[in-house]
User: What shape does this take?
Amino acid sequence: MHVPEKKNMTQDIDLRELEKKAWTSYFQDGLLDIALGMIMLVAVLSSTLEAIDITDEVRVAIYIPLIVIVPPVIVVLGKRYITIPRLGFAKFGLHRKTRNRIMIAGLVSLQLMLLAMLILQWVYGWGSGWLGSVIVTLNILAAFCLIAYLLDYRRMYAIGILFAMSEPVMFYLKNYSHTTYAGFIAYGIPAVIVMVMGFIVLQRFLRR
Assistant: This one.
């Protein structure tokens, strides 16, 4: 009676490993890296545009399509016309769906915690200065590590570290070196690095 149980357990493990390999193969196209880098770069450019003499309407007209429409379109169309034709279409089981739900719940919780801290900072002045920068840094790092772990997406750890380092760099540039466009330097450079990394991964994927 015990032998079939061990066999079934081995089969379950093998199936889960196969599902994991199939799932992670969908991130070998670099499209999500490109989209994340673009979102961050556009967000930084939006703040930079505040220093330029243009109206809010023009700034919003530039910002909204580039951050809300273009990155999702790149991922959706890229998956449809580049990734799926090469890897095929796969439906994943309950285990993967559960991990995705946990990831969403965790991200929402982290953002709510950050919002609460920002409210405390605004009302009571708590968390201002370097402490506020540390809080934002840890929040960014925790969010990206959560995504990387639950999606089995290892490059997301590197992306998270890049973006998390941006906050203390920006704090230093703004408060000590008084560099012009500190946000663009601190966040824009990592965003470009992530986008370039995504394009390199995509190029390798297309050559396969």
User: Anything to note?
Assistant: The chain is about 85% helix and 0% strand. Residues 56-87 form the longest helix (32 residues). The helical segments are 2-25, 31-49, 56-87, 94-124, 130-151, 155-177, 182-207. The chain has one domain: 27-207.
